[in-house]
Amino acid sequence: MKIRSIKLREAHKCSNGVGSFCSVLWDKQGEHIVTASSSDSSICIHDAILPANPPKVVRHHRDGVTALALSPNNTCLASGSIDHSVKLYKFPAGEFETNITRFTLPIRALAFNRSGTMLAAAGDDDGIKLINTIDGSIARVLKGHRGSITGIAFDPKSEYLASADSIGTVMIWELQSGKTIHILKGIAPVIGSDFSSMNIVSWSPDGELLAVPGLKNDVVMYDRDTAEKLFSLRGDHVQPICFLSWSPNGKYMATSGLDRQILIWDVDKKQDIDRQKFENRVTCMAWKPIGNALSIIDIMGKYGVWESAVPSSMKSPTEDIPGLSSKNGHGLLFYDEEEENPSVSGSLSDLGEDSHGESEPFSRKRLHKQHSYRDDWEEDTNEELELFPKVEPRKKAPHGHRDRSDNKRNELKNVPISAGPKMQEAIQPGATPQQPGKRRFLCYSMLGSITTMELDGYSHIEIDFHDTSSGPRVPAMTDYFGFTMASLNENGSVFANPCKGEKNMSTLMYRPFSTWANNSEWSMRFEEEEVRAVALGTGWVAAITSCNFLRIFTEGGLQRHILSLDGPVVTAAGFKDELAVVTHASPPLPSNEQILEFRVFNIRTGTQPRRGRLPLTPGSCLSWFGFSEEGHLSSFDSKGVLRVFTNQYGGSWLPLFSASKLKKPEENYWVVGLNTSKLFCVFCKSPDSFPEAIPKPILSLLDLSFPLASSDLGAENLENEFIMNSMHLHRIQSTIEEMEAAGEDTSLVDDEAFNTEAALDRCILRLIASCCNGDKLVRATELVKLLALEKSVKGAIKLVTALKLPNLAERFNAILEERINKETTGSTIPASAELKCDTSFNAHAALTKSHVTVESSKRLESQDFPSLNLLAPSGSKKRSLEEPIKDVNVETENAKARKLEMAREFKSAFDMKKAKKLKDEKDKVDEVKDARKLENANEPEDGQDKNGEANKVTAQRPSNPFAKSSNNKQNASLFDSLKKKVKADR
Description:
Keywords: Nucleus, Repeat, WD repeat. This is WD repeat and HMG-box DNA-binding protein 1. By secondary structure, the chain is α+β, with helices and mostly antiparallel strands.
């Protein structure tokens, strides 16, 4: 064994000290080495010619990088990570290009096909995604593995794909059908959850052999077509093989094992020809495309180059590469020797040059003479069964006219077509993609579903309602138009299809469920435009077309309005009189963020009450859009975030659900609808994003909740309940105000407000308890100000008193007193006219009024309190939290009884005062009468001396204040006034 002479350089630091899986690869010219580590989120692009130069570091992943792949045209680098994403970069610049796909679990393997038009990605999810690199679409998902998929490889002839998993199973897939043609169980080692080593598979360069690590510390070769075991390479490895790599010409193979050895094999002779021993296990190797060298990287993130890996006395590993002319001799399969820049874009669209679209058999002579990557692409796409769209070839400029302008043109040619994010296509809420031979949904909502299935050139459509007792029974119909979208409500259904050639124009059809007239079904045909989205409401049908026209029809088919929209439509939804339309406001941002705008039209009044931008999670697209059962506008994006529109803050979107908070990455949520507190959806096992129509999917209910930050109280559920109740109360307040403005009865809505206010106060009290236990007293003071009821404030005072917080209890008391003072100042009782009799009675009335004021202060829950969140609507009734079960009617009767008793007390007091007053005045009148009688009795008879006897009598009797004297006129006036007053009182 040779003395180890390979110098290793540190590329990535090992954070755990144990080691992790690391990746390494060469570019096609042998000028750069790319390394990555599953314990490091960065990718390093090293200069292979001058290793001392610092590497170019690319940091776009949030977690460790587990897989690398370089496109055949050497212009695009793909990386997969533990953060579930697959990203593309320009190579060798390292500039971020796009997020081409995303998984729900970590990614373990990536591979480009020979033409670069397809990227295969797999990992801990149970499916392999075949991604069309031209437009980023997913061509197919291959499912069948039970363990994490750790190795994938395209057959060089573009017919098969091989994959291996962590439990030792190898599967061979046919790309045309997506079916498994061979399943080899238990032929590779079981790695379990230790992903520092991988089970990998590798095709020989001619595609005839598939190499797989064996169970006997060897490499086993399987036949391409029959998957039969042909032979194995077994030597001095004393532990299982963890990585293997074919030389470019397929004559040699390098293997690394858990025993920290690398062996170089002569495959034809089935024997090892050289080896090296290392301090740490080597996790990945790559042969240099030009020359005789092998790059390696170990478990600790150190990389190096083994020069002259094949002894110089033997044939070079890059000599006689299959499919290349002998003149080229560098293993460069796809490029013209005279071209400075490859003609294939980094978007892997494989644009050809000088191609005439002829399907000629592949030959070395033709490849050398034409240097046409387009020809190779055509051959591969034919073999790959037309999974990718073809692109028109571009003409190549003559070599003799290359100047600066041509160089600029070449630079533009190398700009990736897919570098710019693609605008989202139009979607129909509740519809699923077309699947050949399978039934699919044209519409699925809270009301029912519309399904279709193609049979012998036409389709069979069925309409079903979830509640069969209330919904009408609709017979199935035959579809001769090929409808792809539909919408449903209680009155009817609308269908539409896109254009399918000149003869099959786009058609819109409305079908009512019940009508008084015959032939009420109608349809419309569109020339030079096609329907992209449809919606239904009360008495209207809407269709949005490719010309950005919003066409509104009546239920009878009358064309009522045609509006021009600002951009291409994304989707539309209807609810009663309202129609909501989402359009593109501008092309997507370079960060792959869609710029969408929503508009809400009121069809009945012909107005547009709402308009604005539709928020989306960065990097996501809109996957569902519609109204809740209560009529609130809602949206759901591909990142699993649900948003609901609110009038608060001038019109904003509230995030009421986030799938990431549930921490179930193996599930996707296909939204059907929502109500005030629940989200209705169908669980789809990842990577499926939509359910099958048969069997009928089962609806699941998820609680709505805000994506709150982790609270220092540990009371996220209470905080979420508090915000949800506040939001509901605001909606109820708005409804009450609208109903009062319209003169409608609000008693039912008031009852709902009672319940919401009581629930809100209970939640606030629990939050106050949490704040006290967490020593957040300022927050507790803020919360007590939000309580709507006086008894709730008193309950908070009792709570903090029991928790032995006297300072906080004093503050709560001050808040309560301030409220009571405001209520006392604001509440007045009008004085009765009957209370103005005299001073004593007014004093008694004042005392009684004071008593009433005290009683009203004890019932502060019947008054309005200002709050920071407008928790108490103006003029609304209040209910005590201490008596949540008490009947409102009973409370009202008790209040009436108290008022009646108070009125009786007032009347009794008034009657007593009045009787006493009358008695006193009667006594005065009687006294006056007696005085008059006495005066008349003292007058003399006719003829008598008036002065004689009269004076004697007067001298003998006591003084009478009413006797006749010089003041007789004054006494008479006093008598008359008293008499008039008595009559008035009577």
